[in-house]
Amino acid sequence: MENLNLPPYDYKLRKVDEKIYIYDILRRKYIVLTPEEWVRQHFVHFLINHHQYPKSLIKLESSLKYNTLLKRTDIQVYGRDGNLMMIVECKAPYIKLTQNVFSQAAEYNQVLKAEYLTITNGMIYHCCKTNWENKHLEFLKDLPLFV
User: Fold this and answer.
1) Organism's domain of life (predicted)?
2) Which residue, among 122, 87, 92, 126, has the nearest Cα to 105 in the 3D structure?
3) β-sheet bridge partners, residue 131
């Protein structure tokens, strides 16, 4: 897998029947390693180890209904009050973070109403704060602190 522009961590890999799996500390099991999963696992560890987000408040691959379609968010982060605080859309490192990627995440957030919206491909990430009253997005220089 490609080196990412995220802090490294001691990941665990396993090979079974010619497939490589990576250990997911949140789901407590090995997951098939894809480029997107590589980014998701690194970003989860980035949230936990470098921004002090409690792993008990992070949920992966949660379903949501958008129009009549069933979709999934990559990462959801909840606040101490139990309300959804941030959604993170992960893409493979070779996927450019275009307006289409941002629009996909923003569409999900129209349903979920998280305060923060983040997109990443492991090479870069963009985070914005949503003001739902004014329907305004403010791009941030970094992820919000967990309080």
Assistant:
1) Bacteria
2) 87
3) 136
Kindly state the helix (H) or strand (E) to which residue 26 belongs, with its residue range: none
The CATH architecture assigned to 13-140 reads Alpha-Beta Complex (3.90)
Contact 77, 109 (CB under 8 A): no
Spatial distance between the Cα atoms of 127 and 82, rounded to a whole number of angstroms: 21
Contact 102, 95 (CB under 8 A): no
pLDDT tens for the chain, 147 residues long, are 789 999 999 999 999 999 999 999 999 999 999 999 999 999 999 999 999 999 999 999 876 666 676 778 899 999 999 999 999 999 999 999 999 988 888 888 888 899 999 999 999 999 999 888 887 888 999 999 887
Alpha carbon of residue 111 to chain centroid? 17
Closest CA to 6 of 28, 30, 39, 52: 39
Tokens linked to 42:
């690194």
**What is the rounded CA–CA span in Å between residue 11 and residue 4?**
13
Counting beta carbons within 10 angstroms of the beta carbon of residue 136, is it exposed (0 to 12), middle (13 to 18) or buried (19 or more)? exposed
